[in-house]
């Protein structure tokens, strides 16, 4: 065994790996306007990642764009989100996910020295023959590669509450 991943790292691995089936993920993100609150979301992946691998330079690079759709389930700050705030929320979630994914990728390169995202399957197509691919030695080369991650979040629906809760009745 190389190492272990946390539950969150496992979910991020599934988002980055096209060979794994992904269902919906229910999670929370910090509210960019009221940091003491969290925003509940349903995260879905409806499109494939765009993975571009360049093995020609001195330092091979991998550019990954992850398109994600999310529905806002609840906003605990009870803030009304207009178009400007929705865009800020989108950017906030994209940045948070990019940071976490970059940290995970760095961990796989430095600690595990192995790649868990299925990118080697994409890289194989860049070689004319299997011996060329084996000579490249993906497992040896991966820890030194430059990996750029970009997350594109598309916000779908906002959850609706049929009745606003009475704050005197709400308890933590």
Please describe the topology of this protein.
Blueprint: H1 7-16, E1 25-30, E2 38-44, E3 50-54, E4 61-75, H2 83-112, H3 119-123, H4 130-136, H5 138-141, E5 146-158
Parallel strand pairs: 4-5
Antiparallel strand pairs: 1-2, 2-4, 3-4
Helix pairs in contact: 1-2
Structural write-up:
By secondary structure, this protein is of the alpha+beta class. It has a single domain (7-158), classed as 2-Layer Sandwich (GMP Synthetase, Chain A, domain 3), CATH 3.30.300.210. Helices cover 33% and strands 27% of the residues. It is built from five helices and five strands. The protein has helices spanning 7-16, 83-112, 119-123, 130-136, 138-141; strands at residues 25-30, 38-44, 50-54, 61-75, 146-158. Strands 1, 2, 3, 4 and 5 form a five-stranded mixed beta sheet that branches. A hairpin with a 6-residue loop joins strand 3 and strand 4. The longest helix is centred in the middle third of the chain and has 30 residues, at 83-112. The mean pLDDT is 91.
> What is the rounded distance between the termini?
41 Å
How is the biggest beta sheet arranged?
5 strands, mixed
Supply Rg.
19 Å
* Count of DSSP H/I helices: 5
The pLDDT mean sits at 91
Instruction: Identify the overall geometry.
Output: elongated
CATH superfamily: Nutrient germinant receptor protein C, domain 3
Task: Could you tell me the CATH topology label.
Answer: GMP Synthetase, Chain A, domain 3
Q: What is the C-level CATH assignment?
A: Alpha Beta
Strand and helix order: HEEEEHHHHE
Count of extended strands: 5
Q: What's the helical proportion of residues?
A: 25-40%
The number of domains is 1
Beta-strand proportion: 25-35%
CATH architecture: 2-Layer Sandwich
Q: Uncertain spans, ≥5 residues at pLDDT below 50?
A: none
> Helix/strand-derived class?
alpha+beta
Organism: Ureibacillus acetophenoni
Protein name: Spore germination B3/GerAC like protein
Domain Spore germination GerAC-like C-terminal: 1-159
GO biological process, one term: spore germination
């Amino acid at each position: 065994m190389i190492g272990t991943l946390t539950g969150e790292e496992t979910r991020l691995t599934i988002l980055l790996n096209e060979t794994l089936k992904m269902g919906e993920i229910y999670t929370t993100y910090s509210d960019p306007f009221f940091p003491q609150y969290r925003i509940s979301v349903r995260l879905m992946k409806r499109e494939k990642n765009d993975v571009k691998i360049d093995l020609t330079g001195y330092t091979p690079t991998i550019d990954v764009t992850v398109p994600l759709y999310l529905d806002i389930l609840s906003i605990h700050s009870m803030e009304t989100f207009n178009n400007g705030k929705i865009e800020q929320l989108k950017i906030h979630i994209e940045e948070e996910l990019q940071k976490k994914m970059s940290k995970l990728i760095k961990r796989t390169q430095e600690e595990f020295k192995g790649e868990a995202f299925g990118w080697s399957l994409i890289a194989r197509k860049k070689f004319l023959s299997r011996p060329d691919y084996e000579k490249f030695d993906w497992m040896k080369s991966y820890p030194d590669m430059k990996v750029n991650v970009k997350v594109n979040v598309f916000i779908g629906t906002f959850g609706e509450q049929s009745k606003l809760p009475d704050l005197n009745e709400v308890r933590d």
